[in-house]
């Protein structure tokens, strides 16, 4: 079985993995990172979005073996309950969730968007999050939250871990 | 659902990749970014015995300005294509279509060559490759081979690549001054797959269309070059003014675009029936040619 080395939320892991194991299953079932949910399973909904070598990726559409020697940041690596990442805080403040299932992926996609566009328009936010589906909110509060998160993060470097 | 079991091979060089693929024959599939292949494996629509991951093979990635054409390495991600100043300047139609592929996270992983070699008629890039007369460069143990776009898309998910052949990249001809481009796509809001898409490259001279090249997305089992409408568009004025042909006034451009679905065999599925797809092909071709001529 292939042996991989992968850094997840700042911790290095060495794992033996079956080739067909998906990154999202490595994260959840082997490493206990259940903050990253599985949504549609087929690359549509974006719930499982993580940072892979600094850019957003859907972890249901990546094999664990492809992440060999890569750096992964999940929602759990962004902040702690006592000290939320500004984007997490913004989602809380703006009530940008109801059931919360899409939220980890939304937050990862939002942070990715801000790397290229630190002060995005509403239109840019909607385009940046087009790979992330929410079936509760109707997106208005999510767009507000990303705007607020961007404001709070401006002036400081976009932090992903 | 997890994919069925397969062997995983990660060659470190192109020679090794060609050798491994040559040995494996049609039992093996090439893995590039995996953004089309992994969902297929998960849905058990494909169950190869082995995946050959090209992710660590050097030399397959990047965009090069080569004078009369731009060479795009097969493993160049959609995101890298969009960030390339050479692509934006010299082959803007590629950038216009790539910007509509899936979403940012998928564009970070998905590759230009993988998307074309997947040969999905609903993919956005094949129509562009057809409209621009791109040339595909592939290599196997027997050497290199060039395949014109018009011969590359054989059938549904079936490119003209032999088992054991690796797509190295694609030559995208620069069409030069006087050409205008547009990619017009109709899709459901929650999904980026085209119901129908139209890639248009046009050259306007003296107020009329001297040349038009039209590629259609999702209008058949393979991507289609719409030759009939190209002929019909020749000599037509793309900007008639007035109300654009609505309300009964004659608009030669709209009349010509009536030929857009000629000879196509579009699929019927839950998104659209055949008649509606033919209607979309005509309407979207009109919009694409108008935008490309502006």
TrEMBL record, chain A:
<protein>
    <submittedName>
        <fullName>Carbon-monoxide dehydrogenase small subunit</fullName>
        <ecNumber>1.2.7.4</ecNumber>
    </submittedName>
</protein>
<keyword id="KW-0560">Oxidoreductase</keyword>
<dbReference type="GO" id="GO:0046872">
    <property type="term" value="F:metal ion binding"/>
</dbReference>
<dbReference type="InterPro" id="IPR036884">
    <property type="entry name" value="2Fe-2S-bd_dom_sf"/>
</dbReference>
<dbReference type="Pfam" id="PF01799">
    <property type="entry name" value="Fer2_2"/>
</dbReference>
<comment type="pathway">
    <text>Alkaloid degradation; nicotine degradation.</text>
</comment>
<dbReference type="InterPro" id="IPR001041">
    <property type="entry name" value="2Fe-2S_ferredoxin-type"/>
</dbReference>
<dbReference type="InterPro" id="IPR051452">
    <property type="entry name" value="Diverse_Oxidoreductases"/>
</dbReference>
<dbReference type="GO" id="GO:0051537">
    <property type="term" value="F:2 iron, 2 sulfur cluster binding"/>
</dbReference>
<dbReference type="InterPro" id="IPR012675">
    <property type="entry name" value="Beta-grasp_dom_sf"/>
</dbReference>
<dbReference type="Pfam" id="PF00111">
    <property type="entry name" value="Fer2"/>
</dbReference>
<dbReference type="InterPro" id="IPR002888">
    <property type="entry name" value="2Fe-2S-bd"/>
</dbReference>
<dbReference type="InterPro" id="IPR006058">
    <property type="entry name" value="2Fe2S_fd_BS"/>
</dbReference>
<keyword id="KW-0001">2Fe-2S</keyword>
<keyword id="KW-0479">Metal-binding</keyword>
<keyword id="KW-0408">Iron</keyword>
<dbReference type="InterPro" id="IPR036010">
    <property type="entry name" value="2Fe-2S_ferredoxin-like_sf"/>
</dbReference>
<keyword id="KW-0411">Iron-sulfur</keyword>
<dbReference type="GO" id="GO:0043885">
    <property type="term" value="F:anaerobic carbon-monoxide dehydrogenase activity"/>
</dbReference>
<feature type="domain" description="2Fe-2S ferredoxin-type">
    <location>
        <begin position="2"/>
        <end position="78"/>
    </location>
</feature>
Automatic annotation (TrEMBL), chain B:
<keyword id="KW-0285">Flavoprotein</keyword>
<dbReference type="InterPro" id="IPR016169">
    <property type="entry name" value="FAD-bd_PCMH_sub2"/>
</dbReference>
<keyword id="KW-0274">FAD</keyword>
<dbReference type="GO" id="GO:0043885">
    <property type="term" value="F:anaerobic carbon-monoxide dehydrogenase activity"/>
</dbReference>
<feature type="region of interest" description="Disordered">
    <location>
        <begin position="236"/>
        <end position="271"/>
    </location>
</feature>
<dbReference type="InterPro" id="IPR002346">
    <property type="entry name" value="Mopterin_DH_FAD-bd"/>
</dbReference>
<feature type="domain" description="FAD-binding PCMH-type">
    <location>
        <begin position="1"/>
        <end position="177"/>
    </location>
</feature>
<dbReference type="InterPro" id="IPR005107">
    <property type="entry name" value="CO_DH_flav_C"/>
</dbReference>
<dbReference type="GO" id="GO:0071949">
    <property type="term" value="F:FAD binding"/>
</dbReference>
<dbReference type="InterPro" id="IPR036318">
    <property type="entry name" value="FAD-bd_PCMH-like_sf"/>
</dbReference>
<dbReference type="Pfam" id="PF00941">
    <property type="entry name" value="FAD_binding_5"/>
</dbReference>
<dbReference type="InterPro" id="IPR036683">
    <property type="entry name" value="CO_DH_flav_C_dom_sf"/>
</dbReference>
<dbReference type="InterPro" id="IPR051312">
    <property type="entry name" value="Diverse_Substr_Oxidored"/>
</dbReference>
<dbReference type="InterPro" id="IPR016166">
    <property type="entry name" value="FAD-bd_PCMH"/>
</dbReference>
<dbReference type="Pfam" id="PF03450">
    <property type="entry name" value="CO_deh_flav_C"/>
</dbReference>
<dbReference type="InterPro" id="IPR016167">
    <property type="entry name" value="FAD-bd_PCMH_sub1"/>
</dbReference>
<protein>
    <submittedName>
        <fullName>Carbon-monoxide dehydrogenase medium subunit</fullName>
        <ecNumber>1.2.7.4</ecNumber>
    </submittedName>
</protein>
<keyword id="KW-0560">Oxidoreductase</keyword>
